[in-house]
Amino acid sequence: MSQPYGRVFNLSAGPCTLPVPVLEEAKEQLLNYNGTGMSVMEMSHRSKPFEAIIHSAEEDLAKLLGIPGDYKILFLQGGATLQFSMAPMSYLCQGAQADYVVTGTWGKKAVEAARLEGPVNVVWDGKAGNYSDVPDLESLKYDARASYIHMTSNETIQGVEFHRDPSLKAPVICDMSSDILSRPVNVSKYALIYAGAQKNMGPAGATVVIIRKDMLDRVPREMHPMLDYRLQAENGSLYNTPPCWSIYICGLVYKHLLKCGGLAAAHSRNKAKAGVLYDAIDGSGGFYKGHAEKRARSIMNVTFTLPSDDLTSAFLKGAGAQSLDGLKGHRSVGGVRASIYNAFPEEGCHTLASYMAEFQRQNG
Amino acid sequence: MSQPYGRVFNLSAGPCTLPVPVLEEAKEQLLNYNGTGMSVMEMSHRSKPFEAIIHSAEEDLAKLLGIPGDYKILFLQGGATLQFSMAPMSYLCQGAQADYVVTGTWGKKAVEAARLEGPVNVVWDGKAGNYSDVPDLESLKYDARASYIHMTSNETIQGVEFHRDPSLKAPVICDMSSDILSRPVNVSKYALIYAGAQKNMGPAGATVVIIRKDMLDRVPREMHPMLDYRLQAENGSLYNTPPCWSIYICGLVYKHLLKCGGLAAAHSRNKAKAGVLYDAIDGSGGFYKGHAEKRARSIMNVTFTLPSDDLTSAFLKGAGAQSLDGLKGHRSVGGVRASIYNAFPEEGCHTLASYMAEFQRQNG
User: What is the average per-residue pLDDT within B324-333?
Assistant: First the structure.
């Protein structure tokens, strides 16, 4: 079935599909934003129109996530990868140590960066099960001296996800890059949340940090400016020129989500979409095999394998003809990965499920 | 005189005007880039179309600047401000020291960041003249032990610029944020050039680094990934998700510049544009006073003052009615700053010069 503007079903793990109405608005205003006589790409970050853009993005994000008043929202650069470093640079110094829960590839990368700064205890590692599960966070043994606990709420590559917020004593730092805004979150359970924009928020280039104010006070003095949460907070993310266009698009996405019922409604849509694909897997009599344990199944990244590499290749090859793009799984898991972030249409899940059934009929 | 699409003459110091044909092409392809069925904002950075975008941006930039084969082009994040830190983190360690030439605000910031890493000798500082001049670089006394010399080719706030490339023994690291691509450059005179995209290249969010390969070998082991020139070079700027949209627009700007005759032609246009404004200043009998010494006058940022603060306010107020936007000078210099980067139309310089003459006639 053909999509507006000749668009395909984009199942990439990120960057990924953005809402069509957001793209339409960005297109409409590309050479002249809101009567300012210039594009947002050309606008001084110190100008009133851009200040309105960033403030409104902050307000709408706070509204969507119900962010309490003792948190600050920052728009930074460098993606989650820079956050893997900034968090330990800030909190794993001067004899501190930290606990890390590793449920997949990105958690492992976070540990590697943290170890450049100080001692890290990996309190849980899903390696033995090839990262197909997540633990019960409250029942793990943490070190009483840990200055923070790091977790990854959704592992994009493995497709495993925590489905509720943790209740832990130490400050929790959470990489929410690939499931932020996919469901309501109790922000007060976290001391610091970070997320690259390029899944559920906007174009790559902006990184959102939601940080409790007491964590700002704990940042050491003499940090390099671009690595200093406190300085960025004091300057309202405008210490230097921020990634203005990415922030602008994030803001449009936030407004769009609010208009579509907020995160509870997004969560319903996401569960329904993921349900279509997991049902297709579970109903295939073992032809399609889900990578994740059922309790840990991600509603953002649906990972599954086929009986052989040849069938996988044939499956991926045939998907293109159905306008299903970006399905190839990461080499560490193999098989197929369907990334169905907020803006991915439910119709695309039905198209994929039908294709899965048809492919099995012909090759099963 | 009215501009296409109701656009104004945008004289902001950055972000700033981009070429209208580039914006038109970006608009045209916003929901479906080149038949891929998706926006560049939505495209996997590991996809063939995006690889083609970034490779072609690299090739075109190399062509424009005549970058020799022993250099690598990187597209990073964090702006020049992160480069103020990355350069000393990489080359001002293990007992090294560095020489800095300070011709304005940005050079001062670079020194501050470098001092967090190691000893810095300021070999020239324009402070006594309120940063209105640049030195003869070859006649300064450098420290034989300096592992590099840092300079700022154009100081955006003060409007002072070096008009030729230095010939120095030690590796030269140059912040070219505000004049890159404004004139032909002999890249081989520099060991490392960095520039935020948001003046002459594209939207904020991308930072271009042009680095000689031997400088990559000198980067210490155990760097944090996002601060590691070597790792970024090994991964062709794709270690993590890069600022794809900013890189795409930079690529369109490079193609546009090549089509318009390359950097020699851009230089002619820029000199002519700046000439219009400096002639207006010099012909005003002292009513308008240029901040920079004539030999150091920037062809990108034209800074000048009026006889009083009241006249300055009135001048800035009246400019809006001529669609002249973003003229307010930085508080450290005061007065007026006309930033006339590559994409700023010559017509806008004539409009401003006429307005200056008319304002003087009424208030002089």
Answer: 93
Percent of chain B whose pLDDT exceeds 90: 97
Flag whether residue A19 sits within 8 Å of chain B, measured between CB atoms: no
Supply the DSSP symbol for A163. Answer: -
What residues of A are in contact with residue B36 (Cβ under 8 Å)? Answer: 8
How many angstroms separate the CA atoms of B293 and B1, rounded? 32
- Kindly list the distances between the CA atom of residue A178 and the CA atoms of A300, B44, B96, in Å, as whole numbers in the listed order: 7, 14, 41
Packing angle, helices A262-282 and A346-363, rounded to 10? 0
**Whether A7 contacts chain B with CB within 8 A:** yes
pLDDT level of residue A196 (50, 70, 90 thresholds) = very high
**Res A143 pLDDT > 90:** yes
pTM score: 0.98
Contacts of B55 (CB under 8 A, 6+ apart): none
Name the closest residue on chain B to residue A8, using Cα atoms: B37
Report how far residue B9's alpha carbon sits from residue B39's, in angstroms, rounded to the nearest whole number: 29
pLDDT in tens, A91-127: 998 789 999 999 999 999 999 999 999 999 999 999 9
In this complex, do A45 and B15 lie within 8 Å of one another by their Cβ atoms? yes
* C-alpha pair distances (Å), B196 with each of A146, A303, B250, B331: 38, 38, 11, 22
Q: Residue A111 is inside which H or E element, if any?
A: helix A105-115
Q: Are A88 and A223 contacting, i.e. CB atoms less than 8 angstroms apart?
A: no
Buried b (16+ CB within 10 A) or exposed e, A23-51: beebbebbbbbeebbbbbbbbbbebeebe
Q: What structural domains and CATH numbers belong to chain B?
A: 23-259 (3.40.640.10), 262-363 (3.90.1150.10)
Task: Compute the 3-state secondary structure of chain A and give helix, strand, coil in percent, each to the nearest 5.
Answer: 45, 15, 40
Based on the residue annotation, tell me whether B106 is a catalytic residue of this protein. yes
Sign of the CA dihedral with B168 first, then B171, B177, and B180 last: positive
Q: Which residue has the tokens 């031997």?
A: B214
Can you give the pLDDT at residue A85? 98
End-to-end CA distance of chain A: 25
Q: How far is A360 from chain B (nearest CA, A)?
A: 27
3-class secondary structure per residue, A245-260: HHHHHHHHHHHHHHHC
Cβ proximity of B263 and B65 under 8 Å: yes
Q: What is the mean pLDDT of chain B?
A: 97
Helix (H, G, I), strand (E, B) or coil at A344: coil
ipTM of the complex: 0.98
Task: Evaluate whether A277 touches A340 at the Cβ level (below 8 Å).
Answer: yes
pLDDT tens track for B11-53: 999 999 999 999 999 999 999 999 999 999 999 999 999 999 9
What would the mean pLDDT of A208-237 be, rounded to a whole number? 97
Q: Is residue A2 scored above 80 in pLDDT?
A: no
**How far off is chain B from A47, nearest CA to CA, in Å?**
8
Residue type, A213: K
pLDDT for res A1? 53
Interface test with A, best of B1, B34, B44, B248 (most A CBs within 10 A): B44
Burial class for B94, CB neighbours closer than 10 Å (0-12, 13-18, 19+): exposed
